[in-house]
Amino acid sequence: MKKFVLCIAMMMSCLLLRAQYNDSTFYHLGLNAAGSVNKTNTSDAYLLNNGVNFGIKKKSIVLNSTTSWLYGKQNDEVSNNDFSSTLNFNLYKTIPHFYYWGLLNYTSSFSLKINHQVQAGLGVAYNIVDKENFYVNISDGVLYDTSNLLADTRYDTYRNSLRLQYRLMIKDIIIFEGSNFLQNSFSNGRDYIIRSFNKLGVQLKKWINLNTALTYNRMNITSRENLNITYGITIDKYF
Q1: Running along the chain, 239 residues long, what does each successive block of 10 average in pLDDT?
Q2: What CATH number has the domain spanning 2-236?
């Protein structure tokens, strides 16, 4: 029971702080926590999803770093111990709604059988729809991937990284947003990665909302996948 009380306490005390850049905001610092708890007479399970984000905007460059940790147990057996840290930049130097991006990512995942994975690459992106309440972005690029799997398998490959990102706000109350990746290896058609994050939020006040998120990941080379549903609280702050 103490584990479940601790789970709820962490989820309530570590909230998401998020900012959107404009002419007077240049820095973004965020913390987030979400999770789920299930307890019956014969079984128990819990899942925690924590993260931190820091961003800087300078003229035509936006730099972001994001780190997340997903941890869960089911009947005292570890089901998730997944860590990811990403550093990326966007460079706005050409036509409107178009920009270049660069990315460096590190992943370790118990559920996907990944000891260590490092990805680095460059690409381009375009805002198909770029309105205040409706945003759709598509990006593509090439990543270099070097991985060490739990089966002591090591390999290197180049991947095509395709992403669809969106955000929809309805009557300033309901927020639906997501980011979805498909990363295919150029050398092996059976080697692909799917990463999908989609969130539905209900805004209670201007600066606070409740949300639920669905996350799906698949590492086809290890034949492993995970699907997680979490819930939490979001606080928006501009500075």
Answers
A1: 39 39 67 80 85 85 92 92 95 91 96 95 96 95 94 88 96 92 96 96 81 92 90 71
A2: 2.40.160.40
